[in-house]
Amino acid sequence: MDLALYAPGLGYYAAGARKFGAAGDFVTAPELSPLFAACLAVQAAEVLAETGGEVLELGAGSGRLAVDLMRELARLGRPPERYAILEPSPDLRQRQQARFAAEAPEWLDRVCWLDRLPERITGLVLGNEVLDALPVHLVHWQGGQLFERGVVLAGAGAAFAWQDRPLAGSTLAEAARNLPVAAADYLSEVGLAAPALVGSLAERLVHGMLLFIDYGFPRAEYYHRDRATGTLMCHYRHRAFDDPFYLPGLVDITAHVDFTAIADAALEAGLEVPGYTSQAHFLINCGLLERLHALEPGSLGYIKHTAQVQKLIQPSEMGELFKVIAMSKGDLPAPVGFLHGDKRHTL
């Protein structure tokens, strides 16, 4: 998964094909509606007001969220002195730079692109649909034994194929044994990279908040008996399927997020977890409906934004599957995005 997504010049996120929006493989919330960034800016402004810090966005995609967020923070009177973007893809970095130059050149002097995490972080660290793109391990629970499912070359044509091998005596084995899997034959993902990222960020966070938005579940729901084949999915030209051997390097490969693992990693690293909720609750808490109602009823803009808002908050769309989790260090007020609908008890 790591090679298929990130191999230099060949991986999905390292090569040049268009990925985001109607012409790409999927549409993320920032591309769907500018109201997403407008609501996110309310939470960001609150953190920046308390810390006087900066924004660090991980994996900024098309740059849509960064541009819209900077504009809205400026409107709120809280533009950060620096908006840093950690982007591993050279192609996406160029697209982000081009977007800022074309749509918000007045903010280019405050935006910078990083090759690695800074040693000290104060302010807001933001990751929208980042955790789901971090590599995971596939683990097969079978007959009371643990196996890791990997990839081999098989047959005369040397095609990719799955193969299990016994799993023991490793960090992965220990993590798998601690999961609530009761079924005799069960396949799922174990993500070690996402909690490790949270731990690395926690080590560097001086004062501020980590805010991640992604699709996933708390652990008890993630490893539910009925989810016996895991969540690994591929995306290509707005189609979803479960075969990662189809067009490797041209297809996005993702897995849902175990938010319990994310919260545990934060707590173990000394952070607080002041909020965990659905995307719908978070956006509504940050004023989404008030912004919609401020538009002229019946106008084309109102109708357009209403359709977009439905996709952002409806349970059958992004509203419930997508979650938002906050992890913080230092004295911060109760985050506005989690005032109602807090789901930390499910973790």
UniProtKB/TrEMBL annotation:
A GO MF label: protein-arginine omega-N symmetric methyltransferase activity
InterPro entries, per database record: NDUFAF7, NDUFAF7_sf, SAM-dependent_MTases_sf
The UniProt record lists the keyword Methyltransferase: yes
Top-level taxon of origin: Bacteria
Pfam families linked: Methyltransf_28 (PF02636)
Gene3D superfamilies from the UniProt entry: 3.40.50.12710
Coiled coil: none
Keyword entries, A-Z: Methyltransferase, Transferase
Biological processes annotated in GO: methylation
Claim: Transmembrane is one of the keywords in the record: no
Protein name: Class I SAM-dependent methyltransferase
